[in-house]
Amino acid sequence: MAEADPNVQHDLEAQLSLAEADKARKARRTKLLTIIAAIVAVTGVVWGGWYVLIGSHVVTTENAYVGADTASVTPMIAAQVVSVEVGDTQAVRKGDVLVRLDDSDARIALAEAEADLAKARRQYGQTTATSTALAAQVSARDADIARARAQLSTAQADYSKAAIDLERRRKLAPSGAVSGEELSSATSAFAAAQANLQLARAGVAQAGASRGAASGELAANQALVGGVPVSGSPDVLAAQARVDQARLNLERTVIRAPIDGVVTRRNVQVGQRVAPGTALMLVVPVGQLYVDANFKEGQLGRVRMGQKVTLTSDLYGSDVEFHGTVVGLSGGTGSSFALIPAQNATGNWIKVVQRLPVRVALDPAELRAHPLRVGLSMDAEIELSDS
Residue 236's closest CA among 329, 74, 119? Predict the structure, then answer.
């Protein structure tokens, strides 16, 4: 029996080795694909479970920023700045002195107003005393009227007597019992009595007119002070109002912090003359911050007021969580309130997903533990399961 060719045998062994190696590679590839498929399947199951249990109940955004309702510090009067008590980044409490203005003009104005008030009070007292004097004048006019009426009665009596005497002498004159001289005397006496009667009547009318004038003056004076205390006099009230305004202006020369917070954007210097309404600085209430989270419009279908929000800040990292509550949604998107709103009337229109700000109130206790500042970025996650 002939022996096998070594070369042929070697080729057969090489072919067998290649076949086994190829089979092994296919087995490893099949195993690797199986592992990858299993990983993908497990990942899909895990993601699906997360979405069903968690993901479908929350919406998240990284487009969120810290905000605050800052207080603008402005003067109420025009004056020169004599001192500035605070600087940027300084924490202040409500009522702390921020700026002092020159109070010289305000003090002078207060002194003038107080002098006007004292003058008004004195004039009230003078008017009251005048009423007493006018009342006495009315009483005196009453006495004048009584005297004039008495004189009128006397004049009427004298007139009646003179008329009777004249009539008697006229009847006796034809018989010669009365001389012509007696008749002339009686006629003169009658004329004098008649004149005195008219004079007495005029005196009564004059006394009545004088009393009416005095009564009118008294009534006019009583209209100013009658039944009204000095504190209720119109002139005194007006003067008191000017005093209160002057005192208020004096108090306004000291500008105080309206709220607790941190001073920022201070732009006032000593010696500067400020006008009412000039912005001197801002006070940021760092203990009353909020977050405006800009969510895509497709995320807001189930967002409601009162839902809980979990937030993290780049300042502290994911280890520190802040908790807040949805307090409202903006009335429009940011682009709609831009200075120049986006308008596209051409045919090259592309839909852009809009974002709507959602206002989130933060927990003050957490802000005290981990202070934030306006403008810091936040990550926000709203729990929709609370809706």
Answer: 119
Q: In residues, how long is the chain?
A: 387
Write down the pLDDT at residue 2: 46
Count CA atoms closer than 13 A to 93's CA, side-chain side.
0
If one counts every other C-beta atom within 10 angstroms of the C-beta of residue 320, the result is 13
Quote the CA–CA distance of 367 and 381 in Å, as a whole number: 18
Cβ-contact 73, 92 below 8 angstroms: no
Contacts of 281 (CB under 8 A, 6+ apart): 73, 86, 88, 98, 263, 264, 265, 266, 267, 268
For the chain, domains (ranges, CATH) are 55-70+285-386 (2.40.30.170), 71-102+253-283 (2.40.50.100), 106-248 (1.10.287.620)
Contact between 207 and 148 under an 8 Å Cβ cutoff? The reply is yes
pLDDT confidence of residue 25: 77
Q: Which one-letter DSSP state was computed for residue 366?
A: H
DSSP string for residues in 37-95: HHHHHHHHHHHHHHHHHTGGGEEEEEEEEEE---EEE--SS-EEEEEE---TT-EE-TT
> What are the backbone angles phi and psi of residue 293, rounded to the nearest 5°?
-100, 120
Phi, psi of 255, rounded to the nearest 5 degrees: -95, 125
Say how far apart CA 222 and CA 227 lie, in whole Å.
8
How far, in whole angstroms, is CA 327 from its chain's centroid? Answer: 24
Burial class (CB in 10 A: 0-12, 13-18, 19+), 268: middle
Tell the residue number behind the tokens 């994911």, with chain if given.
Answer: 318
Say how far apart CA 350 and CA 359 lie, in whole Å.
28
- Read off φ and ψ for residue 196, nearest 5 degrees: -65, -35
- The rounded Cα 245 to chain-centroid distance in angstroms is 17
Q: Which amino acid is at 70?
A: T
pLDDT means per 10 residues in the chain (387 residues)?
A: 57 69 77 84 72 67 93 94 94 95 95 92 74 71 78 82 78 69 76 82 81 72 64 82 95 95 94 94 92 91 90 92 92 72 64 88 92 93 76
Q: What is the pLDDT of residue 287?
A: 87
